[in-house]
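Q: What does the assembly look like in three dimensions?
Context provided by user:
Components: two
Sequences:
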Amino acid sequence: MISQELIAKVLERALSNGADFAELFLENTYNSSIRFYDGKTQQSIVGKDFGIGIRVFYGISAIYAYTSDLSEKGLLSAADAVSKADSKDQIITPKGLNRVRVENIHPVKIPGDTVDKAEKIEFIRRIDKSARNFSDKIAQVDLSLLEKKQDILIANSEGLLIEDTRNYTRAYGVVIAASGAENQTCSDGPGAMGGYEFIRSLDPEQIGKNSAEIAVKMLEADYAPSGTFPVIIDNGFGGVIFHEACGHSLEATSVAKGASIFAGKMNQQIATEKVTAIDDGTIVNKWGSLNIDDEGTPTQKTVLIDKGILKSYMVDRLGGKKMDMETTGSGRRQSYKYAPTSRMRNTYIAKGNDRFEDMVASIDFGLYAKKMGGGSVLPGTGNFNFSVAEGYLIRDGKIAEPVRGATLIGNGGDILHKISMVSDNLELAEGMCGSVSGSVPTTVGQPAIKVDHIIVGGRK
Amino acid sequence: MYEQEFNKLFELARGKVDDIEIVLSSGKAFSVKIHKQSVESFNYADSKGIGIRIIKDSRVGYSYTEEFTDEAFKMIIDEAITSSELVENLEPVKFDDYPDIPEKLHLYSEELNSVKVEDKIALAQKLESLALEADKRVFNVPYAAYSDGFSYSRVANSKGLNKESKANYCSAFVMALAQEGEDKKSGMDFVMSRDFKKIDPKKMAEKGVKQATDLLNGSTPASGQYPVVLNNEMMASLLSTFSGIFSAKNVQEGKSLLRGKIGEKIGSSVVTILDDGLHPDGMMSAPFDSEGFPSQRTPLVDDGVLSSFLHNTITAAKDKVKSTGNGSRSYKGSLTVSQTNLVLQPGKETVNDLLKSYDRVIEVVSLQGLHSGANPISGDFSLAAEGFLYENGDRKEALANFTISGNFFQILQDIEKVADDAQFNMQSCSSPAVLIKQLAVSSK
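A: Here is the predicted structure of the complete assembly.
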């Protein structure tokens, strides 16, 4: 995209006022989306994201500039902007660049651009048909097929020059069921860090039918109860509880500032012994996986909590500098428009030994949260919330009638001590996670877990 | 600006498409974050992108690029044509040379442009130090930040339309964490303006800190139905979350429960809502929308009666009405409908008048989970909340660890009073505090 000589020149210029470290992130991304609703293809958009981000450190101050002007003049003016933000007497010179091509651990079997768009539209149409055939209460099916090919180049003053290509493929849909003056929805968004083979592995009829079934069921369901109850949170997207209640508060972004409830708790018991939690970027073709992070560090499998004991935070280069820790390959960003920071990848609670049936049987009255929506957290206080998309009451040890979505709230420091049972049906689910460095693909996951008490924000 | 790029694209498209529209946005932005009085980060942004919408054989195609080379421009023309061929939905789309608004909007301040970087850093440092000094229970100020930016947009089409506009803004944000015993609470404040002098770090720090310290060691209310006052910021947040219900595009796609309700009473008689694309304090004010259509003030709800939806030219043609100038598209996306500055009109009573309307009233001053716990299509919401219990207008105690649940369409009907303290939030929604007859509160 730009010559090695120019990269070296830009890094040198960025260091010319005494910065300790300089880094360059170049991106050329091909984005393609198809949107389908009202039973018809509505739009198809293809476009190109293109630009560069330059970052320097003065001690633990981070200076970042980005531009999509990749002329020599544009690049040097961005390098000047970052270098002039501060000044130190000692000027270091960048090490000679050593170009390496990343080792790809996430093979793409069928590149999206080799597949006929007619096939893609046919796939979407089958989801639409299957959802609409399920019930005449289905008022709308809004579907998208998203494909992204991100070519990146990362270079820094320590001599790193590395290139990678990331392919993302995802289908996303919302099904709306309507009856009189009421609407209920169900959304689903399977995705992979891989090519079109992922879409071919999906069953469109099943996706359409499942979503339609939940939306209709929720239309007929009563509101969830209010109060504090035992709750079983099922596998897959249920893992959003760990993501919000705990994951964000283990990111160096908040820990390094002391603005996390888990700051200073390394090697302490922060959860019950049932809880082992992992953040893993190496799972082949998983949506939140990587070869290298957005700072060029090879990805890894990081054990965060081992049998309740805090073992690691998620650390990026700058966070590591602040906390005197090694990076865990967790530096991520949405695009060249964001400076990287510590973020999650595929984050899940490892499987346990409890049986799902025993978990249900242990509850007289409570909530079974089968499918979860999103959530959020304030890492400084640990207070989190996340929403139930498909819920059922548990009565006398049995799963009973469906209830409509409600938000569950609690505190991250507290909730991990209330996880009393962990089953063995581990599953991961794809989502997008938004934070200071933008929106990045992550997966959440867990086997079904039982939380002894949690506040259920129902209406009855 | 970008005359050459526009000419090049028109030239490349000539003979290949029936009509073309080009939108461009570019901008520069700056931000600084302070932690422990040092610069935690500086950011400089220099961004640009160009998007096209073409019509060929009555079909619409889109494409965009952030790389401004002849090669990239050729690519987007070809991609837009290819994409148009896949489209099955034939919309009543046409481009036109729309008139300009009569008045001049003041969206750009030369003075703001000349503020020195040192003064911006000093402001963020003050925000942090004042927040730390405001109360001894403050143990951390994780965010003390200043940012500003300049944006330029241009839209042109093959029917002769060619408009440009520029704007700038500055903003500041502070978040404080306070602790008493084991309990931690956070508070924040945010200001956005075109006038650097309007940012008062003392006022902001005190407000953010007070929010955190007032909420410390709250109790949890018993679950049940309560009259609730949503303060101005929280009502504005809720309005932002549900603003899509007024979009004619959502209505036509079956995603708004307001479908077919024009002329009907959808709110109580104190509810008047308008979309004001020309509001002097609104950060979304602009002379024209993404189609080049002139901006306007559009009454949406008059004394509780639904009077209009928000339109672009396509949704308007389908409903046989005029566009309201709410055509919206980033260069990366397709044409949709968005609010500009959405305003719930204030009333004459004070917030205290609202708080003493019942023996017991819960005032909600913080809501979490708006992106996940609220569903704009069903109107249902269930949200983590913090606030205060009032008895006969007197603040009795802080409340935490509870949720409020309800339905936004029901809230519009249940608003009994609107206060006089309207202000804009970060999403350009303005609202006063409102008194809601009852909401479900859930806790222990």
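Follow-up: Chain A has ten helices and 23 strands.
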